[in-house]
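Contributing new records

If you add data, match the layout below exactly. Sequence lines come first and carry their own label; structure lines follow with theirs. Keep one chain per record. Anything else will be rejected by the validation script.
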Amino acid sequence: MTVGLVALALVLTGCSSDPLADQYREGSSKGFIAGDGSVTEIAASARGEAIDFTGIGENGETLASADYAGEVLVVNFWYASCAPCRAEAADLQKLNAQFEDNGASFLGVNVRDQAANAMAFNDTYGITYPSVLDVNDGGMQLAFSGSIPPNAVPTTLVLDKQGRVAARILGQVTSPSILETLIRDTVAEVS
């Protein structure tokens, strides 16, 4: 009986579809796992613990979760040679400018580049918000791995005023209005 249940479980597992695993198996050698743009919202009552992080920015400054206490934080995982990251950069910067001094801040997490490449990207795309350089230790990715992980690059997370993940866009932000709504809704939440 137990062997039959194990065999059935293996068969059923083989039938399920995992888009990220499928992308890997296709062998396209993209060099990255692309998200599908799916949006996940988490009800306030179902959010996990606050994310605690510290990292070094591209200008050598220390950036920490405590710096953003009491405000909504939009965290974007990216790297300079990522085509979807380049495609969404202008939209993210526009939203950053829109929400600056209006209840939300933006923070990038560069997962592959050193400071010079990150700063060149910022200059090219007019990015004014800081980024943590996560290439050497992966500390930022690790900090977020327990709640709703950034499984693809780019991934954009919206953290609530308590520092908990409220929403995730897995892949390129193709509709800035959706991200804008996620930010507005999170800013409007009563603490």
